[in-house]
């Protein structure tokens, strides 16, 4: 990675206190993916950075340094800040947290960066929140090389059938099963009609929305590990 980068489009994914007056910030940048940088003095009351280094604020950030952790330089506000409230705020925090957990430092993800922007804009509006989140999660998995095939059984290559039942295995996909298992007994069992609903982002029925959420939680959990997500506690 270049030792000095100027005015890179970025969003703050996470920040935490560092030393006496600084912040350690994880940025999601357009050209360099996740970048961790120290914002020196950002916690001082009169710091010019204090009001800018906030989640969901589009920024233009400069940073420098040859090590894994950079030093933040100039920072400017991009276009208008995205305002999220209530459950939509918690959803934005959830998106930020899974990006922080799954992205490697200094790996470009331009398509995902645009998807992230679209997700924040969608959360700010009144669009269906379940559709917005499921689209983002599917795009994230695909970008990282773990795309879910909602079209066919991975063993037989037969199309997913609405009246069939399937077992899901992360990183493999769906396998038709004749065993008399209910999703309530085995969370990896899914009805074909619900998989088709996810493929079409049709969550008119509550059961379809619940199945989609369960599927994406299993798929992401295979890569997030056992440590629970802090943002999920906010929903509870």
CATH class membership of the domain at 4-77: Mainly Beta
The second-level CATH architecture of the domain at 4-77 is Beta Barrel
**Protein structure class:** alpha+beta
Distance between the termini: 40 Å
Numbering strands along the chain, what is their spatial order in the largest sheet? 1-2-3-5-4
Low-confidence parts: none
In the CATH hierarchy, what is the superfamily of the domain at 4-77? Nucleic acid-binding proteins
| Rg, Cα atoms, Å | 20 Å
CATH topology of the domain at 4-77: OB fold (Dihydrolipoamide Acetyltransferase, E2P)
Please write the string of helix (H) and strand (E) elements.
Answer: EEEEEHHHEEEHHH
Biggest beta sheet summary: 5 strands, mixed, barrel
Count of beta strands: 8
Explain what the structure shows.
The protein has 236 residues and is of the alpha+beta class. The protein has a domain at 4-77: OB fold (Dihydrolipoamide Acetyltransferase, E2P). 34% of the residues lie in helices and 24% in strands. The chain is built from six helices and eight strands. The strands form two sheets. The chain has a five-stranded mixed β-barrel with strand order 1-2-3-5-4. Strands 7-6-8 form a three-stranded antiparallel beta sheet.
Which helices and strands occur, and which strands form pairs?
Layout: E1 4-18, E2 22-29, E3 33-39, E4 59-64, E5 69-77, H1 86-102, H2 110-124, H3 129-143, E6 165-169, E7 173-176, E8 189-191, H4 192-199, H5 206-224, H6 230-235
Parallel strand pairs: 3-5
Antiparallel strand pairs: 1-2, 1-4, 2-3, 4-5, 6-7, 6-8
Helix pairs in contact: 1-2, 1-3, 2-3, 3-5, 4-5
């Amino acid at each position: 990675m270049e030792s000095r980068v100027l005015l890179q489009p970025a969003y703050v994914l996470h920040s935490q206190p560092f030393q006496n007056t600084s912040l350690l910030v994880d940025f999601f940048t357009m050209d360099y993916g996740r970048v961790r940088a120290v914002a020196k003095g950002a916690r001082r009351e009169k710091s010019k950075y204090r009001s800018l280094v906030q989640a969901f604020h589009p920024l233009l950030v400069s940073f420098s340094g040859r090590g894994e952790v950079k030093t933040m330089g100039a920072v400017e506000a991009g276009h208008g800040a995205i305002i999220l409230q209530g459950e939509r705020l918690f959803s934005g925090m959830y998106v930020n947290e899974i990006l922080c957990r799954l992205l490697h430092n200094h790996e470009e993800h331009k398509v995902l960066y645009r998807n992230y922007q679209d997700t924040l804009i969608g959360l700010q509006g009144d669009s269906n929140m379940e559709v917005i989140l499921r689209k983002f999660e599917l795009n994230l998995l695909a970008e990282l090389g773990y795309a879910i095939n909602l079209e066919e059984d991975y063993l037989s290559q037969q199309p997913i059938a609405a009246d069939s039942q399937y077992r899901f295995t992360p990183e493999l996909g769906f396998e038709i099963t004749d065993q008399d298992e209910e999703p309530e007994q085995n969370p990896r069992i899914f009805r074909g009609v619900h998989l088709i609903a996810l493929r079409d982002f049709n969550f008119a029925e509550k059961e379809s929305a619940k199945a989609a959420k369960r599927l994406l939680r299993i798929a992401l959990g295979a890569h997030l590990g056992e440590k629970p997500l802090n943002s999920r506690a906010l929903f509870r």
